[in-house]
Every structure is written in structure tokens, then in C-alpha cells.
Design a protein that fits this description.
This protein is of the alpha/beta class. Among the domains are: 32 residues, no CATH class; 242 residues, 3-Layer(aba) Sandwich (Aspartate Aminotransferase, domain 2), CATH 3.40.640.10. Helix content is 41%, strand content 15%. The protein contains 14 helices and 16 strands. An eight-stranded mixed beta sheet has the order 4-12-11-10-9-5-6-15, sandwiched between helices. β1 and β2 form a beta hairpin. The structure holds pyridoxal-5'-phosphate (PLP). Pyridoxal-5'-phosphate (PLP) binds next to α3 and α4.
Length: 422
């Protein structure tokens, strides 16, 4: 590693003998402590080489193996591997509309205002109308039960998209019951939550009618791009498999294996296929996931401990050990007393070469969603807590290879800035 005068480093692409060192693009300017890092070693390299050697690059035996392993890990009947988490959501929304026989009816889907924009964008793509609801309170970023229930009572809601923010259970069992009571369907956006559970031990993503995962580069299980739809509903699984590949009656892999030609088209679908390279990476990443998530939780606890006496900041769910214990600890969200303090902490960390992020700007604040709200293509609920949360949140580095010493360094910078109120 080469350190520059700005505290920003350039890292060569290498793995140490113990497989612990990080891998970054040669010659790119990087943070001294990045926000996230891949948990990769020779196993992933070998898996990719084997795919290249197999001379079959998409939707083949590795995709099937990844789906079977993930289904077993989650304890769910069906896993359909797809190109990314956004198209997993799109397929889930379409399945919901199809299941209710109301395809393309402009019905509402409840979406929390604090989430990655994909949760709402995918609903638009399937001609559903997002209803942006508030979060629990200004320090708790899960979907507000009160607001969700009042929207369910007042509107024709087809689905709730429940986001498990930071990989913590945001009320899966509760919203499953509420949606059933109101004749809506629960979709879990579990993009942050692979390997997380409810306190009763049920895998997040498997409690609603459909669950969606993302395997984007910064996720706990990272394959670059990649995602999965999971469900216990046989009909949904059959439809989603069909739509994943243009509604074709057979895949090119099946035709290759059976030496047959030709296919029928049963329904209008998409190309949301999963590549064999992604699946091979997914198989390796899944093997590492339990230990990697355990290390993330350990680091989360270290942050909580180190900042316990800093009154002006608080870690989201830092006082809920029972939730943390079962979470995937995907990101480390810190709430500051004021927006000004948040900005000072961010500046001090960046000065020290430490990357931070923000999860998230509320969806209602984006230009395109403001316009959609004016045109009544989206409904905006109370959103006061979401706005307040977003003003004060900063996301700190969290990944399995992050050292205890780095957490201490990050927290002492935060403590210095917070205590000095400088
Ligand atoms: C909460 C949430 N939903 C959906 C997505 C979309 O996943 P992808 O980037 O794989 O399309 C993400 C990705 O960051 C996410 O964080």
C-alpha cells in the first residue's frame, strides 16, 4: 500500500497468504479506511476461473446450485437468482399484481420514505403508485406502523414494501399480520438483511409473501451485481422464473443440455438472468456469510461501547441488543444531535482519510419524486420523522476486515468533535 500526503492510499491488487488483505483497483485513489470492502480471497478467484473453464457463462449449474444453497440457508421453498436487487423488487411487485388479478391497475404500494430509491422506482416500473410513509420516529428508521395502518384503512393498497434498514428486523411478523388483515401483500425488501433473523429465529425475507435480496458490491453477500427473489408460494415462483427470462418455455441451458431447438413464449417477460460468474461468487460468499455477519455485529458492539459516553451522538438501535444479535449489521448508522454536528464529524473523518456515507436522503426530497407528487403519481405521507432522521444521520465504515483499532480511531475522532462541539 502507498500512502499519499492527503491520507488517501493507492492499493495494488494482491491477496496475502492468509487471504485477509483487501483488493482494490490498481492506481485508483482510495480512502485510508473505506466505508465497505469485499470479503474476498482466493476462493472467489478460483470460483470465477472454474466458470471460465466450464465455457458456460449464464444460468447454468452454478446458478442452480446457488439457488439451492440459498434456499436451504434461508429455509424457504423457492429462490430465483436474478440480475440485481432492483429487478428482484420489480418481479415481486409484478407477482403481487398478478396474484390479485389486477395487473397494471395503479394500485398503491406502501414504501418507507427512508430507503434506497430502488424500492420506489421498481414499483413505478410495474405501474404501481408508491405511497411514501414515515418511519417509526426520528431515531428509528423502520416503516411507521401507525402511518402504514392509516393508509391501509384509507386507500386501496396492494402491497407493503417493508425495508429491513441496516439488516435489522423492521417488524416482519407485525407487518405480515397487518397486511393480511387489510387484504394487502407483504413484500420484504431484504437487500440489507441476508442472514438476519427475527428474534424468534425466522429468516428475514421469508416472512412476507415475497422477499427480495441484493448482492451488489457493498452488500454482506457481494457478487458485483446480483439479486434473488424468494418465496414459499409455488405459483409466484413459477411466474417469476418465467418472467426472469422473457417468458420462454425453456432456457438456452435446457436446450443446450437436451440438444433441442425452439421455444414458446408463455408471457411477456424480461431479461433478468443471473450469470454463472455471479452465482459462483454467490456460492463462495454464502459459505462465509455466518462468520462475516458475526464479525459485523461484533464491530457494531465495539462502536456502541466506544461512543456510549458521547452524549451528542447515538448509534441507531444501539440500545436494542436483542435486535442487533439477530441482525445482519449491514451498515453503521450514527445519529448526531444536530445537522451541523453531523457535518463537522463528516468533515473531520474525511480529513483523516475515513470514508462516510448517508442512508438515505428521503425519497420524497428527490426532484423526480417531488414532480411525481405534484402530478399525483406518488403519494407523500407525513414524512416528518424521515426528514429529521435524514438531517442527522451519517454512515460509518463497517465490513468484516475492519480492525478494532480502526473503530477506536473513528470513535475518538467523533468523540473529539462532539465533545468540543467544534
Ligand atoms: C434497500 C435497498 N433496496 C433495493 C436495492 C437495489 O438493489 P440493487 O442495487 O442490487 O439493484 C438496494 C441496493 O442498494 C437497497 O439498499
Amino acid at each position: 500500500m502507498l500512502e499519499s500526503s492527503e491520507g488517501i492510499i493507492t492499493i495494488a491488487t494482491t491477496y496475502s497468504q492468509d487471504g485477509q488483505s483487501s483488493c482494490c483497483t490498481k492506481g485508483r485513489r482510495m480512502w485510508r479506511i473505506p466505508l465497505s470492502d469485499l470479503n474476498y480471497d482466493e476462493a472467489e478467484q478460483q470460483a470465477v476461473l472454474e466458470v471460465l473453464g466450464s465455457r458456460w457463462l449464464t444460468m447454468g449449474p452454478r446458478t442452480e446450485e446457488f439457488e439451492a444453497r440459498l434456499a436451504e440457508f434461508l429455509g424457504v421453498r423457492h429462490v430465483i437468482a436474478v440480475s440485481n436487487g432492483t429487478c428482484a423488487l420489480q418481479l415481486a411487485y409484478r407477482a403481487v399484481a398478478w396474484l390479485r388479478g389486477q395487473a397494471h391497475s395503479n394500485a398503491f404500494v406502501i414504501v418507507p420514505d427512508i430507503t434506497f430509491v430502488a424500492t420506489a422506482n421498481a414499483a413505478f416500473a410495474e405501474r404501481l403508485t408508491p405511497y411514501l410513509c414515515d418511519i417509526v420516529d426520528a431515531e428509528t428508521p423502520g416503516l411507521s406502523p401507525q402511518e402504514a395502518e392509516s393508509v391501509l384503512e384509507a386507500k386501496q393498497v396492494q402491497a407493503i414494501a417493508l425495508v429491513h434498514y441496516a439488516g435489522f428486523d423492521c417488524g416482519a411478523e407485525y407487518f405480515a399480520a397487518v397486511s393480511k388483515r387489510h387484504g394487502a401483500i407483504l413484500i420484504e425488501d431484504a437487500a440489507h438483511a441476508i442472514g438476519a433473523r427475527t428474534i424468534d429465529g425466522r429468516a428475514l425475507g421469508t416472512i412476507g409473501e415475497v422477499g427480495c435480496f441484493s448482492f451488489f458490491s457493498n452488500k454482506n453477500l457481494a457478487t458485483g451485481e446480483g439479486g434473488a427473489v424468494v418465496t414459499n408460494n409455488d405459483e409466484i415462483a413459477e411466474r417469476v422464473r418465467l418472467w426472469r427470462c422473457h417468458g420462454l418455455s425453456s432456457s438456452s441451458t435446457q436446450r443446450h443440455a437436451a440438444r433441442s431447438v425452439g421455444y414458446d413464449v408463455f408471457d411477456v417477460g424480461y431479461n433478468f438472468r443471473c450469470s454463472e460468474i455471479v452465482a459462483a461468487l454467490g456460492i463462495e460468499q454464502l459459505k462465509k456469510l455466518p462468520a462475516a455477519n458475526a464479525r459485523r455485529r461484533e464491530l457494531y458492539r465495539l462502536y456502541i461501547e466506544a461512543l456510549r459516553n458521547v452524549e451528542a451522538v447515538r448509534i441507531v438501535w444501539g440500545d436494542r441488543p436483542e435486535l442487533l444479535e439477530n441482525s445482519a449489521a449491514h451498515i453503521l448508522p450514527l445519529l448526531c444531535e444536530t445537522e451541523a454536528l453531523r457535518d463537522r464529524i463528516r468533515a473531520a473523518l474525511h480529513e483523516a482519510g475515513i470514508q462516510t456515507s448517508h442512508h438515505y436522503a428521503p425519497i420524497h426530497s428527490f426532484t423526480c419524486y417531488r414532480r411525481a407528487a405534484e402530478e399525483r403519481n406518488v403519494c407523500v405521507g407525513k414524512i416528518r420523522n424521515a426528514t429529521e432522521f435524514a438531517r442527522r444521520e451519517i454512515t460509518l465504515p463497517l465490513y468484516p476486515a475492519l480492525s478494532d483499532e480502526s473503530v477506536s480511531e473513528i470513535c475518538s475522532i467523533i468523540a473529539r468533535v462532539a465533545k468540543g462541539r467544534a
